[in-house]
Amino acid sequence: MSATIIVGTQWGDEGKGKITDLLSSDMDMVVRYQGGNNAGHTVVIGDKTFKLHLIPSGIFYPKVTCVIGNGVVIDLKVLLKELESLQKEGIATDNLKISSQAHLIFQYHCDLDSAQEGKKEAGRIGTTSRGIGPCYVDKFNRRGIRVCDLYNQKELREKLIWNIEEKSFQINKFYGGSVSYDLEKIMEEYLGYASKIKKYAVESSTSLINQSIKDKKKILLEGAQGTMLDVDHGTYPYVTSSNPISGGACSGAGVPPNSVSRIIGVVKAYVTRVGGGPFPTEIEGKEGEELREKGGEYGATTGRPRRCGWFDGVVMRHSARINGLTELAVTKIDVLSGLDKILVCTAYEYEGKKVMDFPCDLDHLEKCKPSYEELPGWKEDISKAKSYKDLPKNCKKYLDKLSELAECKISMVSVGAEREQIIRSSSH
Ligand code: GDP
Ligand code: IMO
Ligand code: MG
Fold first, then answer.
1. What are the structural domains of the chain?
2. What are the binding positions for substrate in this chain (predicted)?
3. Low-confidence residues of the chain: pLDDT under 70
């Protein structure tokens, strides 16, 4: 029983990077299990800020083996850039391992992503345009190209010929684009990447991870995105193309469910969302903008402004249930300091009836109105709080309300972006 999962409980950007980095000091291995460079995980160490897109957030500890798991989709150009920028900062990256089963993103995936977004007449998803969806489509359609294919030139060439033909047809004939792809150039580019990542590639990441479990090592499985962006359990179709939920960790890393003992839900003290799609507690206008500025709510990957809203207890309940959360890590509570009152959505109302379960049908969801409870705010700066008792009474009341709605205990409260700005449950 040695694995811990870190999962986003809302629409992503909850602070998973910070919490992963924090817990990594006590881990032997950190594994990313899904998503790709649509993720942007921020780690702040002293006066340095790192934004990680593909490399696990445990990379700052040389003793921690960091694995990009089989469930991740990799853009090698981005990965190599990320490695280079870490190395420039003096961060050792020899502890990185890349699963040979992970799928690769090619330019045609990015072009297809943008073409699809451009074509949609109504309700653009607002993807990150990183080719994530088209790459997962190829994986499930069994046309994908994996890391292992880079070391078999014949196989790589055959798969590329087929894919180039298919994607060019789709983009040009259906979406009205004008792309052309040069097979030899792509071969040359990717064979170049292949030699650069060879030292990190492992034939069986699942053997590596499971051997660590057998050896009673401590393993952290780092989710990207969040529960409400899950392709099965989120606000479909306004979701990503993978399973960020805790269950996704088992398939995306190849770990058995009974090896997991802790499931930590990362919960932002309010809610944000980037891109399109329903957001019942969204704060419109000036108040929402103020919260965005105060919380620095701009995407770590695309720089897009994040939509901001009040804490949503219905989302929280849905998320706690699906993920089987054993504890919560609440982040960005410091951002709420200074407000006179804070609203918390405890239920939705639909045609005069109380709704406690998150509606799966978007038509139904759109007709739901949030029911709010008003809690008193606090004025004190809490960014230097070291223990629970340092927090103002109203802040503790707010945290108790979040815990009550999630039906789950809080084990960590983050009061600032920096690594040291954390209150652990032992200080409650
Ligand atoms: P992730 O994708 O879940 O890792 O989250 P992001 O890194 O995209 O977004 C979280 C943002 O909030 C980053 O800029 C973090 O540095 C910052 N952050 C994390 N925890 C806290 C906190 O407790 N307080 C404040 N003020 N900022 C935080
Ligand atoms: P982290 O790991 C927030 C959103 C996009 C879009 C939808 C689909 O940093 O929390 P995609 O490119 O995945 O096909 O886009 O998902 N999205 C995220 N939003 N945080 C993320 O990752 C996200 N990754 C994807 O904005 O709405
Ligand atoms: Mg992020």
1. 3-100+201-264 (3.40.440.10), 103-196 (1.10.300.10), 267-424 (3.90.170.10)
2. 300-306
3. 1, 120-123, 426-428
